[in-house]
Amino acid sequence: MTRKSQLLAAPLMLFVALAAFSQTPARIATAERTWASFWRQFTLAINKKDHAPLLRMMPSDFFDGGGGLTPKGWLKFIDENEPNGSWRDSRKSMAGGANINRTWSAIGVPTKVTRDHAYYFEFRKDGKWYFAGVVGD
Prior knowledge:
Elements (H helix, E strand, L loop, with lengths): L2 H19 L3 H24 L2 H6 L14 H10 L5 H10 L2 E3 L1 H4 L5 E4 L4 E5 L5 E6 L3
Antiparallel strand pairs: 1-2, 2-3, 3-4
């Protein structure tokens, strides 16, 4: 690499890193401002076992904890395991609330985790919160 190309590459790499990993105060403020509404809708859907709104709040890349299930597949799994307390456990987890996970959020996506560390939520680039997954083992 020539000296000139190195001088041009350095600011470009810095810009890309800042754009990819920085959280603007406006984005964080939007995430916090929209959290309460999302949380109310989400917990209502969990309490009612209402699949339609839950599916709208789950991204296509939902992480089920390592089993490879789609959002629909995960909800079906929860339904099938209701005798073992799956919905009850989910409601209990949500009743405890969620807190910001600063470590995960520092990577670039504002993330909240239930207080029992069972489920997590991400504020994505489209400006919406999502029930992103189950915290892995």
